[in-house]
Amino acid sequence: MAAVYSGISLKLKSKTTSWEDKLKLAHFAWISHQCVLPNKEQVLLDWARQSLVAFYKKKLELKEDIVERLWIYIDNILHSRKLQDLLKNGKTVNLQISLIKILNERAAEFSLSGSQRNIGAVLSCCQGILSTPALAVIYTARQELVVDLLSQLCWSACRQPEAALIPQLFEVIHLTLGHYLSIQQQQVNPRRTFGEVTGHLLQPCLVLRHLLSGGTWTQAGQGQLRPALARDVRNQIEAMLRGGVFQPELLSSYKEELLEQQQSDTKMGTMKNLLAPMGTVTAGLVDPGYCEPALHAAVVASSVALLYKLFIDAYLKEGNQLLCFKALPRLFGCLRVSQLQEKQIKVLSASDWTTELLVLEQLLNSVASNNIYNIAADKIRHGEAQFHFYRHLAELLINHSQAPVPAWFRCLRVLMSLNHLILEPDLDDLLASAWVDAEVIECRTKKAQEVLVHTLFQTYARLRQAPRLFQELLGVMCRPAAEALRQPMLAVGPCTALRECLLELPPGQVLDTWDLVLERFQALVLPHLRGDADMAWKSLSLSSLLHCVMVHARVLDSSAPLPVVRRLQRTMEGMLQDLVKPLLDLLQEPRCSAPELWCQKVSDSALLLAHTWAQVDTVLGLSCSHYHAAAEPSSLPSLLPGMESQCWKKVEEFTVQFKSLGRYCFEQLHLQKMKKTLMQMSFQSAEALHALRQDAAYILDSGRASLTLGTAASWDGQVGTVSALTYPVAHWHLVVSNLPILISYLCPDDVRYVASILLRTLPVSKAQEDLAEEEADLTLGKISQAVLHSPLFPEMQSLHSAFFLCLTARCSSVLRSSAQGNPTLLRQQLPWLFEEDHVVVAPWEDRFAKVISEGAELRGEIAHNLLSLVRGDLCIQLEGEQLECLLGLLEVVSSLQLDSLSPPDHVHCFLLLLSTAVTTLGSSCPSSLALRFLVTCYQLLGYLQRGKSAQSVLRTMYVSDVFEVTLTSLFRGSRRLLVDMDDPSWLEFLQVVGTFLEHLLQMLIQRKLSPGLNFGKIIAFLSRDDLCTEATSGKQGESQNPLGQQLLLVSLTKLCQVLGLLVREQRQHDEALEALPELLQQAVLQTGAVLQLCVAGRAQGWRLPSTIIASVSALLEADVAQCSRCSGTEVPRVTDRMLLPNSALYQTVYSQILSELPALAGDTISLQAAVQFLTLFSLAPELHPKKESVFASVFHSVRKVLADPTIPVQVVEDIEPHLGALFTQMLDVGTTEDFRLALQHILQGLDVSNTWKADRQVVLSAVTLIKLLLSCTLSGEKAGLFWRACPQMITALTLQTREACQEQPAALVVVGPVLDVLAGLLRQGEGAIGNPHHVSLAFGILLTVPLDHLKPPEYGRIFPRVHNVLFSVLQCHPKVMLKAIPSFLNCFNRLVFSVIHEGRQKDKGGPDDLPVVLECARLVQRMYSHVAARAEEFRVFSPFMVAQYVTEVQKVTLYPSVKGLLQEGIYLVLDLCLERDIQFLRVSLQPGVRDVFKELYGDYVKYHKAKHEGEKRYTV
C-alpha cells in the first residue's frame, strides 16, 4: 500500500492536479501512516510555503479560499501533536526565511490597512512558531525579523482596538516580547539594541502601554483581554525599554549629553557615534506623526513618568543625582504644560490639566523619594540649578491655578517639602489661590488641599516662622475681593492643620500671631464696617481665624513665664475693650435694626469673638494662677464683663432674626455663663437656680423652630462653617454635648421636647443608618445615635424616661393604626396602647396596683384580652411597611437599658411588647422579616424578665397566662411561616423563644409564685388535644406542621429542664411537694409522646436536628432525675434494675448520633447537644447495648470527629469542655480493657508515620484525646495504665514536634496543642513519671520550637505554651531540673532572646504588636523570679545569665516598657551574683557590652538594691 501513495509529491507539484485535490492529498499525506515520503514533514511544509510565496510574489494565481486553506494547513501542521512529538524526538524541521517574511508582511498589511484577510490563521501560525522553541529559532537567529514582527503587531493592536482578534493578537505579542527580551539580554552591541528600540519599537510600545494602562481591552465584553495578560504585556514593555534605552553601557553617553562631559573611557569606542540618547528618546516621544493628535498628548504624558522612573532605576547611584535631575527638565519639556509661559499652545482643558499635573506629580515624587535634590550640594556645587528649575515649576503652577484638580495641590506640597524657599517668593499668591480664594468642592480635592495647608503650617512651625506665614495670610485675607463668593476658610481640614501648628509654637509666637490679627482687624476692617457688606464678610473671616488661634493654642499654666502671662493679660484686655465691645456697640445703633447683610455678618463676628473671649478668659483663670480673670460686678456671672443686660437684650433682639453663627455663639455665651455659675459656691441658691433655668431654657428655645422643620445640611464641627443651613445641626450638637449640664435645669415640657426631637432624628430604618454612616460630617441622626449609645444616657433619668414614653407612644400608634374594628373596644381591652402619658392613663395602672388585694380577676382579664388578640377577636394586622417601622422602633428599644426601668414603665413596656409579638402578621410580610421581628420582640421580653422590676409584671399576669398567650400566638403564626427547619434564622428564633420561656419559668421558681399551681396550668395547657393538633398539624389538621412541632418540643423541653432541676433541689432541701414529681412525670410523658411523633414523621435517612437532640437530652435528664429521686441516690444515675419509659427512643437516638456525629460537627449547637446526650446516656446503664461497649463506640465516634480535617479548629476548641464531661462519665462506665484499647489508638495516632503520610489531623486528634483524658480524674488500674504509657506519649510528641518544626513554615497548628499536652503531662505526672530521661525530653522539644519570624498572633500563642512547659519542669520536677540546669537555661534564654528581638524598636511601623510582647516579657520576668527563688541551684550560673542578657540587649534598642519588665527580672538574678561575679563580668565582657552592663548595674544599685536594703532594715 505504501507504494500506491509514493507519487503524492509529484501530484502536489503537478499543474494538472486541481488545488482542491492538492489540498486533500496534502492533508491525507500528513495524517496518514500509509503515506511514505522521504522527509515527509519537511516536504509537505515546503510545498505549502512555496505555494504561498509564489502567490504573494504574483507568480501564481490562487483563489482567496485556497490561500486561506493553505494558511490553515500550515497552522494545523505547526500546532499538531505529531510535529511536536517529532521535534521532541530530535527530528529537524526547517522553516524558511521566505515564510517568516510573508508572515511579517501580512502583519504589516493588517497594521496599515486593517485588512483582516487570513489574519486569524496568520496570527495562529506566528503563535505556533513562537511557542515552539525548535521553530522559534528562526526568529531568534534573525533579530531584525523579531523587531519587525513586534513593531507591526503593536501597531496593529493600537490601530485596531476594536478588532475581534484582540485576545489572539495579544497572545502573539506576549510571545514575541518574550523572545525579544531574551535576545536583548544576550545582545553584546548596546548601540544596535538602542537603535532598534528607539527606531522601531519605542513609539508603538509606548502607545500600546498607554492603552493597556487605561484599561482599553480589560473591560467586560466579547473579545476582551484578560487582566493578567494585559499586566504581563505591560511589564514586558517596561522591561524592554529598560534593557534597550537605559542600558548600563549608555551611562557615559547620557553623561556626555546631559552633563556636557567628554568621554574618557577608551573601551567605549563603539559608542562614540551614539550621541544624544536622551534627545533621541524625547524626539521620538514628541513626534506628532505616530498617532492621532487626541491620543498623542495622553501617550506623551503617561510615557514621560515611565521613562523618568526607568532612568532613575537604571542610573541613580551615589554621585549620579545631578545626572538624574538633568533628565527631568528634558522629559518635562515634552509635556504641553511646560510651554504655557511661552504662549506656544492654547489653554489646556480641565482633563488635559489633570493628565499633565498627575505626571508632574509623579516626576516630583520620584525626585523627593530618591533624594535627588540636596539643597546644600545644589547651592554649593551646581549653582542652584535644581532650585531654579523648581522655582520655574512653582511659578508655572501658581500663575496657572488649577484648584479643581487634586494633583495641583499635591505638586505644590511636594515642592514645599523639597524646600520651602521654592514657594516662599510667591507665598501670598499660593495662599490666595490654594486656600483663601480656592473653590474646592470635591472630597478628593478637599483632601489634597488639606494636606497642602497642613504641610505649609507644619513647615513654618518647625522653622519657627509661623508669624511670617500668618502675616502673608492676613495680607491675602484683607485684599479687596468679593468676600461673599469665598468658601469658608477654616473648614475642618485647614482648622486641624492650624491647631497642630499652634500646639507646636512657643507662647511668644502665638501671641505675635494674635497681635497681628488684632492689629489688621482694628486698622483695616473695624473703621470701615458700617454699611459695607464686603468688610463685614472680612470681619467674619478674621474673627474665625482669631477664634481658631485663641482656642487651639496651648493653654498657659502656672509655670508659664510671668512676662508672657502679663503680655497675654494685656492682649486679652485690649481685645475686649478695643475690638469686642466696639463690634457689639455697632449692633446697638439704630441703623442696625433692619436685617441688612452687613449687620448680620457684624453680629456673627462680634458674638463669635465675645464667646471666644469669654471661653479663653475662663480657662486661663482656672489654669494659670498669675492670670486675673475679668471681675464680675454682681454675685452672678454675666455674659461678658462690662456689658449691661439692657445691651444684651438689644443684641438678642437683633440676633433672633437670623439662623446663623451669631445665634449659635449667643447660645454658647449662655452656656458659658451656666458653667461659670455652677463653679461658684452659691450655685444652689434660689437666684442662681433661677438664672440657670433661664439660660437653659434660652439655649433650648433658640433653635426650637429650626429643629422643628427637620431639614439641615451636614456640619463639619467647625464654628466658622455655621450658616443658616448648618445651624440646626450645630444647635443640636451644642444641646446634646451639654445635656448633663442642661437636663437638671429644664422643665418637664422641655425634657419631653428634647426626647421627641431625639426620637424623631434617629435613623430608624437600615437605609437611613447606611446613609448616616456614609456621611463624614455631623448630622442630626449621627448626633442622636451618639446620645442613644452613650453610657450617660441612662444616668439622665428624666430624659431617659421621657424618651421611653415617646418611643412606646410611637409603637402604640403603629399598632392602633393597624387595628381593624371598634376602637372603643380596643381601648377598653388594651388600654396600654392608648397611653400618651402616665398622668393621663393612670387609672388602669392603679387597677394593676390593686391586683394583689382584689384577687385574680384583673389578671385573668388581661390574659383573656391578649388571647382575644391572638385568636383574632381583636384584629390588629401588621403589613410589611408597618412591620418595618415597628422593627426599627424595636431596634431603638433594644438600645435602652431595660433592666433599669421603673415598675410602671416596666409593666407598660412588657404588655406593649407582648401585644406587639402576638399581633397577626399580614400576607405581605415575608417570612424572613417576620422571623426577624419576632426574634427582636422575644429578645426584648427576655431582657425585661432579667430587669429589677420583673416581679411587677407577675402582679399583672400569671406566668401560666403569659406562657399560654405566647405559645398560642406562636403555634398559630408558625403555620404562616415558609422557612426550612434548619434555616439559621428559624434556629435563632427557637433559641430566643426557648430562652424567654426558660427565664419565665425560672422566675416563677425564684419568686416562689405558686409553682405547683402555675406548673399544673402550664402542663394542662400543653397537654390539651386541640393544642397538640394545632401545633403539629396544618390548617385543617391535614398536613404536618414541623415548625409547630419544634415550638411545642422547645416549650416542653424547657419545662422538663426547669421542673427536673426544681424536683432535685427540693429533694435536697427536704421541701419536696407531692405534686411536683407528678407534674414532672406528666411533662416527661408528654415530651416523649411529641418526640415519638416527630421521630416517626421523619423520612428515612433524615439527620437529627439540634432541637430534637436537645429535647431528647432534656427528657433523658428529667427521666434520670426522676428515677434517681425514686431510688433515693445522691448522684443522678440510673441503675440496671430501673426502667426508663422512653428507652427505645433513647437507644434509637443514641445509635443515630453515633453514626452522624462527624456530620453533626458542622453545626456547633448540634454537636454540643449530641455530646450532652451521650454524657447523659452514659449515666443510664440500663440503656446501654448488651453486645457492644458504650465506651468503645463513643470513643471511636469522637475520634472520627477529631480526625476529620473539614472540621474547623475553633469548633473543636469550643466543644472540648463538653467532651471532657463526656469522657469523665465514659471512664466510669468503661472497663480497663476499653481504656487499654483507647490508649493503643492514641499511641497509633501519635505515630510519626502519620506525619510522613501528611495525615496531620490524625495526629491532632490523638493529641486532643490525651488532653481530654488529662481533664478527667484517673484512678486505680486506669491511672496506672495511663502513666505507664506516658513515656511513649512524650517520645512520640518529641518526634512529632521535630517533624512539624522541620516544615517551612513550621506547622504551628500541631506544635501548639503538643506543647499544651506536654505541659499537662508534666504537671499531672509529678511523682508518676519515674524516668528522668522522659522529663528531659521536654527540653529537646522546647529547643526545636521556632520563636523567630512568627507573626504577632502566632508569637502570642506559642510563647506562653513554651513558658508553661518550662515552668512545669521547674515546679513539678525539681530533681530533673537540678541535673539538667544547662538545658533548662538554654530553653529559658531562647525565651529571653525572642522577647528582646520582638520588643525592639523597629524602623517601620508602629508598636501594634507591643501588647503581645509585653505579656511575654511579664512571663519572662516571672520565670526570673522563680529562678531567683532557687538561689542554691542557680547561683553558679547567675553571672552567665547576666552576660547573655546584656550581650543580646546591646544589639537592639528596646521599647521602654519591655526593657523595664526584663530589667526587673534580671535584677533578681543580679541579687544572686557575688562581688567576684560582678568583677568577673566587668573584666570579661566586650567593650560595647561592658557599657551596657555598667548602665544596668548602676540602675540595679540605684533602684533595686537600695530599695531592697531599705526593706531589710524593717525586717526582723
Summarize the structure.
The protein has 1516 residues and is mostly helical. The chain contains 72 helices and three strands. The protein is globular, with a radius of gyration of 44 Å.
* H/I helix tally: 72
What is the makeup of the main sheet? 3 strands, mixed
Strands, count: 3
Multimerization state:
single chain
- Enumerate the strands of the largest sheet in spatial order, edge to edge or round the barrel: 1-2-3
Helix content: over 70%
Compute the average pLDDT: 84
Strand content: under 5%
Radius of gyration: 44 Å
Which blocks of ≥5 consecutive residues have pLDDT under 50?
A: 1-5, 262-273, 838-845, 847-856, 1068-1072, 1134-1139, 1511-1516
Tell me the overall shape. globular
- The CA-CA distance between the termini, in Å, is 120 Å
Structural class: mainly alpha
Walk me through the topology.
Layout: H1 8-13, H2 19-31, H3 40-56, H4 64-79, H5 81-88, H6 97-113, H7 119-130, H8 133-141, H9 143-159, H10 166-186, H11 190-213, H12 227-244, H13 251-258, H14 277-286, H15 293-315, H16 321-332, H17 350-369, H18 375-381, H19 385-399, H20 406-418, H21 427-436, H22 443-462, H23 466-477, H24 492-504, H25 507-525, H26 533-552, H27 562-587, H28 597-623, H29 645-655, H30 661-678, H31 686-702, H32 704-709, H33 727-737, H34 739-742, H35 748-761, H36 766-774, H37 780-788, H38 797-817, E1 819-820, H39 823-829, H40 842-849, H41 851-854, H42 857-871, E2 875-878, H43 880-895, H44 903-917, E3 920-921, H45 927-945, H46 951-954, H47 959-974, H48 984-1006, H49 1011-1022, H50 1025-1032, H51 1042-1068, H52 1075-1096, H53 1106-1127, H54 1143-1160, H55 1164-1178, H56 1190-1203, H57 1209-1229, H58 1232-1245, H59 1248-1252, H60 1256-1270, H61 1276-1302, H62 1308-1324, H63 1332-1344, H64 1352-1372, H65 1374-1379, H66 1381-1398, H67 1410-1429, H68 1431-1434, H69 1438-1449, H70 1456-1472, H71 1475-1484, H72 1487-1512
Parallel strand pairs: 2-3
Antiparallel strand pairs: 1-2
